[in-house]
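Structure (tokenized):
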């Protein structure tokens, strides 16, 4: 299997990441407030432990697929950027950081869901898990901003996809601000956070398809 074929498979892994993430949402069971009583948190994980474990397994698989996509994304951008390839490298490094933070948050969820709950679950663990999930938006915003800059300078992606990446970067930067929002539209479950959350997916699906089509067939365009 040649390098071009491997890169196309790498681009397709972005679509796999989206599909696996969508499947994981089937097992969403709401959540518990970090300041909820310990017995309420314990009851939640007793009732929904298996669903939370399954969801974490799927999100972990999705993170692995997104990492594979990030490798192909870096190569795709680097060929257009040339020179030091600083932004392409930044996009890849940010994707790795986001995946690492996502996996750390999943580790908290697995630990909470799989542990025997003879006693109460410390609410602080929920707060830490939620904080890691939220802060993972920071490297994601950096990745998308780097993609936008390369695209708008070099037309690695069509201009409209470059602007879409810029908008997605702004959305995830705004989501990271919810770390200091305990309530309101930007808080977890709020209408604004819910509307902004799919920003990566809205960019990722057309970007992955564009990469699959363009790899090996002249990658610059408008």
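Design, position by position:
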């Amino acid at each position: 299997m040649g390098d071009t074929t491997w890169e196309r498979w790498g681009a397709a892994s972005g679509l796999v990441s989206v599909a696996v993430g969508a499947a994981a949402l089937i097992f969403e069971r709401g959540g518990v407030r970090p300041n909820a009583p310990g017995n309420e948190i314990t009851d939640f994980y007793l009732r929904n432990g298996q669903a939370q474990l399954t969801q974490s397994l799927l999100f972990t698989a999705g993170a692995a697929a997104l990492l594979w996509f990030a490798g192909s994304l870096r190569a795709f951008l680097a060929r257009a950027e040339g020179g030091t390839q600083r932004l392409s490298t930044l996009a890849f490094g940010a994707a790795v950081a986001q995946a690492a933070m996502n996996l750390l948050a999943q580790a908290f969820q697995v630990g909470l869901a799989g542990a025997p709950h003879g006693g109460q679950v410390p609410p602080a663990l929920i707060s830490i898990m939620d904080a890691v999930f939220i802060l993972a938006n920071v490297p994601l915003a950096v990745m998308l901003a780097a993609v936008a800059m390369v695209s708008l300078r070099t037309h690695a992606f069509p201009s409209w996809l470059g602007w879409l990446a810029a908008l997605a970067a702004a959305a995830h930067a705004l989501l990271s601000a919810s770390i200091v929002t305990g309530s309101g539209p930007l808080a977890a479950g709020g209408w604004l956070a819910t509307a902004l959350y799919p920003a990566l997916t809205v960019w990722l699906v057309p970007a992955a398809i564009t990469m699959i089509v363009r790899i090996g067939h002249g990658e610059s365009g408008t």
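Reviewer-requested clarification: The chain has one domain: 3-214. The chain has eight helices and no strands.
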